[in-house]
Automatic annotation (TrEMBL):
Residues 4-271 form the HpaB/PvcC/4-BUDH N-terminal domain. InterPro entries: Acyl-CoA_Oxase/DH_mid-dom_sf, AcylCo_DH-like_C, AcylCoA_DH/oxidase_NM_dom_sf, HpaB/PvcC/4-BUDH, HpaB/PvcC/4-BUDH_C, HpaB/PvcC/4-BUDH_N. It comes from the Bacteria. Pfam families: HpaB, HpaB_N. This is 4-hydroxyphenylacetate 3-hydroxylase. It comes from Megasphaera cerevisiae DSM 20462. Residues 279-473 form the HpaB/PvcC/4-BUDH C-terminal domain.
């Protein structure tokens, strides 16, 4: 089904309210100031699906039915398919300026579990793969948005989930039933949930038998009984909840998901205690996700270049003096995008057909994603000047105040051919992109860079590379790693 923005928003309005902000229940996520901007961001994706100029990015043909479907519900069965994941992400950032998790994590999760459920069924004789297929057919037919949730609250980082003083610090199964499972615990820092309709849960780590109850995967409606969603995005609320141009019409949400004995029907359960495969879920998911997120930060970087162009001109300056800064920003964008595409190109299909990116190169990309975008943000601030970075620019309410507004507008105006309001809007956009509500999780979104470095280290064959060097250098003796030497 190719949905419209109106159909999407109508669906959200029909759901049971269970999202909280500042301790208050949000009755309608499509209109509440804390969540409506994220809804608008996602709605623009449905606009793209119905726009002939962008349709090929947002729409594809189902490999299961041959029908036209929203691309974010599809199986990625080729290099071209997964590259289109990156194209969609970069396009969404260009349209919204920030993250749209409902077009992202659930899509990757369903593809990962397409592979892992087949492997589990082969070993254990389970029926997970067929269940996932039936759910996916329904998802394709409805075109729903599905957020994804991996990260647990975790508790004490030096302890395993089953050893935690509070077992609910990691989401786990508390009851196995013939008709499904009952789950309790917390998933934290989950993007786009308020604007999504379902949530795809994956295990948060690779587990051993003692932690098998934490090895779970399922998909459930956002408004399922027993789930409380706490919207946590706060750093920029002073701007995002204001009126006027202090923040754009788009935005992002983050959330804690608190599960209190939530029953999940068997048809929606795709892993329930098969701890042996929890690590494989993480391996496959991070490889694909960390390859694709290079496109996310590249897309926002494109907007930051544009904001820099606008600010230079609004300040009365040509772009040329900032050429070197603009070049560096562009190089940063294309580096994360290209390394991600490289990880995909070096990947291969799983036996079920879904494409799996190269693990090592994908994690190299994550390391770049945790550093290069911050340089791009700094350069955007440099180009924009103090009006962007120092926090001294008056609010929209002051800017339009009957008494103070004309005074402020007089002194905000800079470039002769650019109005005070245009300079103000460009400045606020630059601020939002680099300091405020538009900042995505570059550093820790999708996992920490230190975790990525561990994967790169584990996949770098140091002895093999040393052997190459020995041959070229003509070294014949065995150069061993020294033991502990007393000095």
């Amino acid at each position: 089904m190719i949905r419209t923005r109106e159909e999407y928003i109508k669906s959200l309005k029909s759901m049971r309210p269970n999202v909280y902000k500042f301790g208050e229940l949000i009755e309608d996520v499509t209109t509440h100031p804390a969540t409506c901007k994220a809804v608008e961001s996602h709605a623009r994706g449905f606009d793209g699906a119905n726009d002939p100029a962008e349709k090929e990015i947002f729409v594809t043909t189902s490999s299961l039915t041959g029908k036209e479907i929203m691309r974010h519900t599809s199986l990625m069965l080729s290099l071209e398919d997964i590259m289109n994941n990156s194209r969609l992400k970069r396009t969404m950032y260009r349209k919204c300026g920030t993250c749209t998790g409902g077009f992202c994590v659930g899509w990757n999760a369903q593809n990962v579990m397409w592979a892992v459920t087949a492997d589990m069924d082969e070993e254990y004789g389970t029926e997970y793969h067929q269940r996932l297929k039936q759910w996916l057919l329904a998802a394709e037919d409805s075109g729903i948005l599905v957020a994804g949730a991996l990260t647990d609250a975790k508790g004490d980082r030096c302890m395993k989930p089953s050893d935690q003083p509070d077992p609910d610090s990691n989401l786990h199964i508390v009851e196995y039933r013939d008709d499904g499972i009952v789950i309790t615990g917390c998933k934290a820092m989950i993007c786009g949930v308020a604007a999504s309709e379902e949530i795809f849960l994956l295990p948060g780590s690779g587990y051993k038998e003692t932690d098998k109850d934490y090895a779970l995967s399922c998909v459930l409606p956002k408004d399922i009984e027993g789930l409380t969603i706490i919207e946590t995005r706060h750093a920029s609320d002073c701007r995002d909840l204001e009126e006027g141009f202090d923040a754009p019409a788009t935005g992002v949400t983050q959330a804690y998901l608190v599960f209190d004995h939530v029953f999940v029907p068997k048809a929606r359960v795709f892993m329930a205690g098969e701890f042996k495969y929890s690590g494989k879920v993480i391996e496959y998911f991070t490889a694909n996700y960390r390859a694709c997120i290079g496109a996310c930060v590249a897309g926002q970087g494109d907007v930051m270049i544009g904001a820099g162009v606008l600010m230079a001109r609004a300040n009365g300056l040509a772009v040329k003096p900032f050429k070197d800064k603009m070049i560096t920003m562009s190089v940063n964008n294309e580096t994360t995008y290209a390394v991600g595409i490289g990880a995909m190109a070096l990947g291969k299909p799983h036996r079920t057909g879904v494409w799996l990116s190269n693990n090592k190169v994908a994690h190299v990309n994550k390391i770049h994603v945790a550093s290069l975008p911050y340089e791009t943000k700094r350069l955007c601030q440099e180009i924009g000047g103090g009006i962007v970075e120092t926090g001294c620019f008056p609010s929209y309410r002051d800017f339009t105040d009957p008494k103070l507004g004309p005074v402020i507008q007089r002194y905000v105006k800079a470039g002769r051919e650019v109005s005070a309001e245009t300079r103000a809007r460009a400045a606020r956009l630059s601020e939002w992109l680099t300091l405020g509500g538009g900042v995505p999780g570059c550093m820790h979104g999708g996992g920490s860079p230190d975790g990525a470095r561990m994967v790169v280290h584990a996949n770098t064959p140091y002895e093999e590379f040393a052997a190459y060097a020995k041959i070229i250098a003509g070294i014949t003796e065995d150069v061993k790693e020294p033991g502990n030497v007393k000095r």
